[in-house]
Structure formats: C-alpha cells, structure tokens
Amino acid sequence: MGFVELLARSNFSFLRGASHPEQLVTRAAELGLEAIAICDWNGLYGAARSFQRGRELGQRVIVGAELSVNPGARGDSAPTGSTLHRSALPNPQKTQREALGRALSAGSLELPTVYCLVEDHRGYTNLCRLLTRGHADQPKGEAAVELSWLLEHAAGLRLVLPVPEQPRPGEPRRVELRPEQLSALAEAYDARASDPEARRIAVAQVRRLDGYDRAREQLGRSLAEEHGFTPIASARPRYHHPSLRRVADVLECVRRKLTLDRAGTWLSVNAEALRSEAAMRARFADEPAWVDATSKFARALSFSLAELDYQFPCALAPGESADQRLWRLTWEGARRRYPEGIPMQVDEQIRKELSLIERMRVAPYFLSTWEVVELARARKILCQGRGSAANSAVCYALGITAVDPARSELLFERFLSEERAEPPDIDIDFEHERREEVIQDIYARYGRGRAAMVSEVIRYRGKSALRDVGRVFGLSLAQVDQLSAALTQWESAAAVPQRLRAHGFDPNDARLSQVVSVAMALEGFPRHLSIHVGGFVLSDAPLDQVAPIEPARMEGRTVIPWDKDDLEILGFFKIDVLGLGMLTAIRKALLLIDEDGGLPACAPDPRAPRLGCGFELPDVEPGVRASAHASPAALMDMITDVWDPLRAITQIPPEDPAVYAMISRADTVGVFQVESRAQRAMLPRLRPRCFYDLVIEVALVRPGPIQGGMVHPYLRRRSGEEAARVPHPALWPILQRTLGVPLFQEQVMQIAITCAGYGAGEADQLRRDMAAWKRSGNLLRHRERLLAGFMARGIDARFGEALFKQIQGFGDYGFPESHAASFALIVYASAWQKAYFPAHFACALLNSQPLGFYSVASIVRDAAEHGVEVRDVCALRSQWDSSLEWADEAPGGASVDRVSGADEIARRIPGVGGWVTSPRGGRRRRALRLGLRLIRGLGEGSAERIAQARAEAPPRSIEELTRRARLTRRELDALARAGALTALEPERRQALWRASAPSHGRLFAALDVREPSVPLPPLKRAEQLLLDYHSKSLCLTDHPMSHLRQRLAQEGVLSSAQLADAASGRQVSVAGLVLSRQRPATASGVVFMTLEDELGCVQLVIYTRVFERFQRVARSAMLVLAHGRLERQVAPRLPLSSSPHAASLAVEEAPVPVLHVVVTHLARLEPPGELGVRSRDFH
Predict the structure, then answer these.
(1) Of 591, 843, 859, 927, which has the highest C-beta tally within 10 A?
(2) Same domain, 466 and 577
C-alpha cells in the first residue's frame, strides 16, 4: 500500500504556495509517491501544468481544488455576530454574497475549506460549475461556494475536510461548518456506505509538531466517528522542498500585508513540504492506517485532463457539414481574390490545406474565426490576421489574412501540422478603439456561457519582487526604490555585492542579503491573474463543462483561469482578438483623405500587395453578422450609408516609388513598425524599393537576426559588396529571396525539411525548440541530426555549424515571414498616407493616442517639418479631436493669402505642405488644428459642451463661454493655461486672471457680468513655455533648449543641425530633451537614447560601462548634456538590380547618412522651470 498526497498546493494558489506545480509533480516522482493531487486555492490554475509534467514523467496527478465554503449562505443561519445575513433586504442572497466578499477582501473573516477531488468527467464538470458559481458576485481573487452547491454538485466528486485549526490571538474571525451541515455532506458523499472505498468524504489529519497536533487529532477523530468520515494522513504541503520555507513565509506576509517582525503565528512552525511515504509512515507510526487510507481513497480518482471533450462551435446550415461549408466558402473567397482565375499553385495549396484541415477535424475553428472577422466587417472595422496564420492560403481566401500566397513563399506547416496534432492559433488585429465592439459581438453571437477570454499570468519580475519582499523585511519605500535602481536587472549571484556596494548598500547586511535572495527566488512566480490582451476561447457546449469561468474586473468580460500555454497543453482553440492602434489611425486618416477627394478612383492592380482582409464584402450568410443590438439585415441597413474604410483602403496605390523613397530617407516618424531608432538607422542602409524589401526590413531589425549574425551579411550582399551565395544548390530556392542568408523561421524549417530529412511536424518542433532553447535546452538535441543530414546531402560542415549558430541566435525572437509580411502591408499603407497627406496622417495619429514610439509633441513637430501649418488649441475652433482646416481661411472664416515661393514648390512634391485638391476645385492646403483632448484636466464632456455652445452662436467673451458651456473653474483654468482662450483674450495672463474670477451664481447667470479690467503684464517666453508643457506637453512657438542655447553655444555644445555638418570621429557635445530611452534585451546592456533640441533630434549610444557610471542621469534626467564621439555611417549606393524581387527605381537617391554619438559622459541639465513631460521609455 502506497501513499498519496491529496492536499498539495502550488504557487498558482497566488501567494499561498511556494512551488511551481511542475516542481511538486517532479518531486512526487522523485519521492516515489503513488499519486499527488494539486489542489490550488479556489481554482484549477495550476492544473494544466501539473498534468503536462505528470504526462512527461509518468507520474499520476489527481485533479482537484481547495474551495472556501460559506456556511451561512443561501438561507442558512449566519454565524453568531456575522454581518452577512440580510434576509430583510430585497435580494438577500446576492447581498449576503457581496457582504461576504467585502469581509474576505478586508481580511476580517476566514472561511472553512474543503478539498474537491475529481473521480470522472461528470465530477470535473461539477467542480468547474462550483468554481464558476463560487467566483460570481465576488471581488477579484476571492471566491466562496455555498453549502447547498456542494450537495447539488456531489456526483463524481470526493471531499477531504482538513481538521479545523485552533484560533490564535490576532487572527481573523473564523467560521466553521456546523454539525447539521457536516451531516448533510456526509449523506451526500456516501460517508456510511457499506463498501469503505465507496465512501467519498474524508477528514485529513496533519501533524505539524507545533503543540496543537493532539487537539487537532481529537477533533478529527470525533468528526470521523460522528459523521463517518474516512481519516487520512497528509502533510498539506505548500512547497516541494523544505528549503522554500522562507519563501512561503514571505509570500504569506505579502498576502496579509505584514512584515516578518509582525507575522507572529502566521509563519511556518515546521516546514510544510512534500514528504515521502517513508517520512509519512514515520510521522504517523502510531496510525499507519491513515497513511494506507490515502491510497484506497484515491483509487476512484482516475480522471485525467486528457479526457476533456472540448469542441469548437460551428453554426451550420441544414444538410451541410463543417468541412463542406469551409470548402464552399474557401473556393468562393478564392474566386473573389483572383477574379482572373486562381493560380495553379494557389489551387493546389488550397486543396492541400483543406484536406489536412478535414483530417485534423478543425474546420469549425476556421469557420468561427471567419465569423468573427465578418462581425467586424459588418461594423466596417478594419482588421487583419497576422502571425503564422498568414502562411495559410485558406485563411487568405476566407479574408482572414491579407498575405497573397501567389506572391509569397509561405510554409503552411508553420501554422498547422498533422504531425504536431495541435490546434491552430489565429491572431487578428482590429482597430484598437473599436475592438470592444467586436468583443461584445462575440459574446452576443456565442453567448456568455460559451465564450470567455483567456487569462494572463502576472509574474514576479525583478522590481516587483524586490518591492514586495523589501516591504516584508521592513525596508522603507525609499530603500526599496533605491534597491530596485541598484539591481535594474538580475545579475549572477557573484555580481550582486558589487552592484549593491556601488549604490551605497552594505552587501554583508544579513537582512539585505535575504531580501535579494528571496526576491531572486520569486522571479517568475505567479502573483495574480489578469485578462489576456485579446485571447478568446469559444465552445460548442457550455464552457463550464470543461473550464471554470470567472468574472473579470473589466465590465462586460468573463475569463477562464488559464493562459495561452495552458490552453495549448489542453488542446483548446484560441482566437486572439487584438487591438492595433495603427489600424485606428489608418482608418481615421483615410476618412480625412477621402473627404478631401484624395483617394484614387481605383487601384490599378487588384492583386498587388495592400492592407486588408479581402475587403470586398462577400454575400452575407444568414445569422453570421448578428450582433448584440441588431439582426444581420438591420445591421447592414444601418451601415449602408456609412463611409466604408474597408473599400477605401483598397484604393491606396501599391508600389509607389515616392513612398519607398521617403522610407529610404528614414522619414518615418509615425509610420508603423519602422519609426524606432534602430529601424530608422537601418532604413538608409537597406533602402526598400518594393514590398518584399519592407517584409525584410520589418524582420531584420529584430533580436533573432541580430543575435544570429545575419544582418551584416545580408546588407553586404544587398549593396553588392559580397555575392549572394549558398553552400549547396538545394538551398538556393529557399534562400534566394534573402540573398542566401536565412532570416525567417520558415526558412529554417524548409532547410531542415529539404536538406536534413526532417518531416514537416519535426521541422515545426525544431522551431519550437529554437524558440525555447535558452529555457529548455532542447535545441541541442537537433544539432547532430541537422549536421548529419547536411553532410549526407553534401552540404559543407562549416555551413551546418554556422546555420546552427544562427538558429540559436533566433532564441525567443525568431520572426515568421508571414507575420513580417502582414505587418509590411500596414507599413506601406501608413507610409503612403504620410508621404502624400502629412496633415491628415498627423491628425489621425494625434486622435489615436496612445500609439507608437513618439510623443504628441514629436508628431506635431514632424508635421510642421513637412510644411504643415499647425494651429494651437482654441476654444472657438478646436473639437475634442484634432481636426483639419483650410489653411487659407482665418479662424473667423475670412480668406487669407499664405502662399509663398516654398509653397509653390510644395504643390508639386508629395508630402510637403499638405496640399490637396479641394472639393470646391483647385489646389488648397490643409492646416492641422490641435484638439481639446490634448489639454490636461479637460474631459470629453466639457469639449462637447463647448462645441454645443459654439454651434448656437460663437461666444463673445470668456464669461459667456463659461456660462453657456457650464464650465467649472477648474475646466476654465485648464483652457486658460493651455492658451485655448486666446481668441477671447489675447493675453494669457489676463485670461488666467479672468478664469479665476469668482462665479456670480444662478441669479446673474443670464447676464454677461465681467470683472473690472485689471492691466497685467504679458507672460514672459519662459513662463508661456512652462504653461504649454504643463498643460498640453508641447509648445508650438518655443522649445526648452532655445532658452539654454546661448550658454550652451559658448561652451561648444552643438545643435542637431550643426551635428549634421560635423566630421565623423570628432569629439562632440550635444544636449536636448529626452524623448525616449531603449535598452533592448539583445544589445548587451547598451542603452539608446533620443534627444530633441529646437532644431531636430540626436541619437545617443550609451554602452554599459558608461551607463553604470551615469545611471541616475541616464535613467531619470529630463534634459541631458552628452559628450562623446560622433559616428557617421553612409551606406554604399545600391545596384539597381540588387534585389531579385525589386521593381527598380529609375533614379537612385543618394544614401542618407546615419548619425549617432557614442557617449563617454552624461550630465543633467536644468530646464527653465518644471516642464512636467515624460520620455517614452521601452525596455
């Protein structure tokens, strides 16, 4: 007879356990336990991971959960003195549960727990429903099941009751199950069945050697005798090894918001670790039957998560199967995609994919994903599939993705593989401001019982671990912040003392050493659950048959408590409904451009690369476009007359040389994916000339190619400095399009298949091992097979070694070509808008914030540099959003002549000056009016009231505006500080004075009562600058550096304009406002910083040694003075035939030099006052 631990708890009990579920299962196997039950607190949070580890080791894992029980719920008598009973109220049950949740959250009450263990599938469903009901109406992180529910859902479950703990001084009030309730449980769970193994309820005896064991055992014996409960032995472990006791104590203190000094009896008296059978028999030497009983009790607990019968939903017409419907829709879509005939290779690929989809029985997944896209199209929401799904010709035909398989070398096995036998995973980007509409339509389409969002595990990382652990050890908040700054990223144990000493800490301080060691031990521990950015699980049957459902903090959302890794283990299908801000900006820009007649009447080539998911809407099938608010027909009637971005986006002309010329100049502020410092440094070297060059650009500036040493060889071959070559002819078809250099995951997989004899599923496993090799080390198992396969086919061994090194370089950051192609479509669309309509594009970017790499001030500045007239916020002209005005019309409507010689040139150059063809005829220029949304302290409701007041009649005074728009003094002050009242009061100081005047109340509300005029001196330049930055984070007429320029010039500090003329290698000094800081994980600690002065931007490169020396300045300074060496990189001219896919330009522009300063010294500059702006930092 063996021993089974039935009450183990993992760290997925969130601050209540100190070992990963995999560690507990591994330790159980090492100890030779017959089985182990992982029962996390009020959830199945660690169930998938423990199941997976058990399957790998052959260790039996029992499914279960530890549930909190409310003895006083559902009409039962509340405990004496309890405030939970509210029978006199209209809805006493809901009120009781809400009051219970508040008491649990406040820590003033603790409930008894029971361990629910699963016998069979019915029991698993009952446990899921118990958990679902237990979390309803409770605060996030709390749950409580009612006693009647345990009786109602008893089938297929077994219960273990831990012996109640004796209350100790200072502990919260505890309630326990009453005798009549225990009797009810005993009856429901067959406690007195004639067959002992048929008894489904036990009482657990735990010996902690804490002085309370005898009292606990006496109580446990009496429960067993009185109610027939089976006594069993347990260690009730919270961690897999005794060495984790201190970690468990710290987590307990974090949960209870205590320091170790005040924790008292909450700390472990003896290690609550997993024990072997021998250890348990030694501890229970006088009661060996209790140990034997664990094995007998567990025999019926045979359910495994492998038995889950999860099915994806699929709405079908009578007489049509899922596969038949998918075949029909796919071929209909393919004919729409290729009106001149489906290319042979696409036809073959579609047939191949449909056959595989049918064999794998995943047609419902593709159909439901198509339905989700159709829901968005019905609302005219831009969307596009990306990721590995863009490798699928079926997805392209259905309109889910936009990458044409006839123009790409895609690998379907990267997306779906029969050998892998795992569900597909499709990511779809939607406009981020309208994604919620799609989410609620999904809930309405499938029902909340069959749709839920995926969770995301929020884990301890360096700073969060140090913060929580530091507080537990009694460090002050200032000390914790200082410690976090010292250990910006985890070093090896040997490096920590030096870092601590450098920041003024004593590394020999025992308490400090424990803080660091425990914090490092917590790295990667789950702290709490959050909601995934967009993952959805849909189910054909009620979802709570296969998974618990919990309410999310966000209104209108429900989640299942598993993340994407758990779903992959369990074989659940997930659709990612993601929000992409650039799609929102593109739609808003298209609307502005179309209103000005700027879109071409038609695009020349219907199959040229362009953004969109087959935006020509197909015939609507009944029921597909149903929403929460209208039938499909009614919804289509509602949107018939609405402007259609789905059609407008297809009118963007493809392959425009002027667009590629702009991109090659790195003139890409605001352009999707190619606006970062690294991308803008790469663009003049790569100089994209065609769509596929954009695909490469998107993928090239990534950690994988950089770490794998692929970037420089590719650039040398592209510039003609080095010949494109491969070590074997078999590799040329795979690597030709990237000049013999493997850049994409698909290429690595194709090389493994073609040149090393891998099957498609094996090649995908190589990709997976490649992505996780640093964590698992599994990639090394491929080395010998790859090299042997290469040698067998005559491929040079040196190339094999080099390729393997490149594969390792991909690490966690390998980039699929299909994903890069999807993103490249958005790159081109946004670049076209910027190239030809800079005012419209900048306006859309401002109205789609937060978005991208650059601040509002940078976007405005870039627009001005492109000749766009930018007009400040104005209470009489501005909307909530930024808007466009005709530049030749003054704010009052009068026409003014603003055309200059430069403007005449701008008329003929795309992207300069904002010229468009006016609907009234002739060429006119657009000006950008900043919106009221930029003003801090002003809400959208206030802006709407201002607009409504203006619509009636333009206010003639500040007082009239205040009265008619019902503005509060705070709102009026915000307008005055931002300079938005200039049209009513030209002097801002005077406007501030009038804004602060006392209100005259309702009696004089109809009168335009003004304070006597008090002459005040105008604001100084510096004062106005500070007000602008404080109120709206930008100033159109000034810059902080202009106030420091005279002094800096005397000290030899160059402006950004002067830097452009300086010689490479020269020692220079530069200064500016910090726009952004970057510390990529692959840059070996190098920090990249962007500075802005009054004339432009400067790029800084700060190596680790310099960063460590000037860390405080580098991390926090708003204005920086930098000294260092100027480096100028000028790429060689490209040969016109450098790319086998390029539609070469007739004229090759001179390469744009790339400048940066390699910093040797940093200093903080004091601004002319407190600016109140923040840099955009990306780590």
Answers:
(1) 843
(2) no
Domain assignment present for residue 478? The answer is: yes
CATH number at residue 130: 3.20.20.140
Within-domain flag for 580: yes
Q: Which of 1032, 1058, 1086 is the last residue of a domain?
A: 1032
> How large is the angle between the packed helices 245-256 and 510-522, nearest 10 degrees?
90
In sequence order, what are the beta bridge partners of 916? 924
For residue 166, tell me if it sits in a domain: yes
Same domain, 465 and 432: no
Domain around 337: 322-457+531-651
pLDDT along the chain (1179 residues), means of 10: 94 96 98 98 97 97 96 47 33 60 65 96 97 90 92 97 75 80 94 91 92 90 94 96 94 92 81 93 96 96 94 85 95 94 94 94 93 94 89 93 82 76 84 94 92 94 89 88 72 69 80 90 92 90 94 86 93 92 96 90 55 44 38 40 81 92 94 89 91 92 69 88 87 90 85 86 79 66 86 82 72 73 94 96 95 89 93 95 88 36 40 57 83 95 94 91 93 94 91 76 50 74 90 91 92 93 93 87 74 92 89 88 91 57 48 86 82 59
**Nearest Cα residue to 143 out of 181, 185, 86, 105:** 105
Contact 1095, 1057 (CB under 8 A): yes
The answer to whether the CB of 650 falls within 8 A of the CB of 615 is yes
- Measured distance CA(126)–CA(23) in Å, rounded: 28
Whether 875 contacts 946, CB under 8 Å: yes
| Number of domains composing the chain | 5
Tokens linked to 1079 = 């510390």
**Is there a single domain that holds both residue 1078 and residue 968?**
no
Same domain, 346 and 288: no
CA-based radius of gyration for the chain: 33
Q: Give the C-alpha separation, 377 to 374, whole Å.
A: 5
677: CB partners within 8 A, 6+ apart: 1076, 1078, 1088, 1090, 1099
